[in-house]
Amino acid sequence: MFAFLALTLQMGHTLQGRLEVYWTKMEQLCCPFYGQTMARARYYHILRLLHFMENNKNRVDRTDDRLWKLRDLFEIIRTNFSKFYNPFEHLAIDEVIAKFKGRVVFKQYIPKKCKRFGIKMFKLCDSTGYTYDMNAYLGKDRQRAEQHLTATHTTATNLTRGGRRIWA
């Protein structure tokens, strides 16, 4: 599993167009690290069977949260982002699109972005670019609509308040 995670993280640093290109034997594109670490078929097999949540989870929890399959992993990542680093004085809220080709209700299409289809996320970053907190946009928030708050106001408030200490 550690080799699988290492390969997946390394893929973020050496960007290729398609997944199978990482294991190519073409001289101009070849990167022997991937083939020496794990066979392509084994990587695909693990990727196909990878789950982050039990499928027999209570159906009541599923209806309330659109991100229910990844919620536990998402919260672990958010907690560790803020636990191991205190940001500098200058913070910014950034809107990013995480490229996603699958089918979910909350997938966004933003034609002016280079990654036009994906999951919209809002991140609280400091001046070095470190992500301190993040939220995924899961569709229109009904509670906010009842309180007559704008989406920008709610997003900024949730990311900056968040119940966590921001400065040391």
Low-confidence stretches: 163-168
* Strand portion: 15-25%
Rg result? 19 Å
Q: Please, how many domains?
A: 2
Q: Tell me about the biggest sheet?
A: 4 strands, antiparallel
Helix content percent band: 25-40%
What's the total number of strands? Answer: 4
Shape: globular
Mean pLDDT: 79
Based on helices, strands and strand pairing, what is the structural class?
alpha+beta
Number of contiguous helices: 7
Q: What sequence of helices (H) and strands (E) makes up the elements? A: HHHHHEEEEHH
Distance between the termini: 35 Å
Give a quick rundown of the structure.
The chain is an alpha+beta fold. The protein is built from seven helices and four strands.
Q: Could you explain the architecture of this structure?
A:
By secondary structure, this protein is an alpha+beta fold. The chain has two domains: 2-49, no CATH class; 59-161, no CATH class. The chain is 37% helix and 16% strand. The protein contains seven helices and four strands. Strands 1, 2, 3 and 4 form a four-stranded antiparallel beta sheet that branches. Strand 3 and strand 4 form a beta hairpin. The longest helix has 13 residues, at 71-83. The radius of gyration is 19 Å and the shape is globular. The two termini are 35 Å apart.
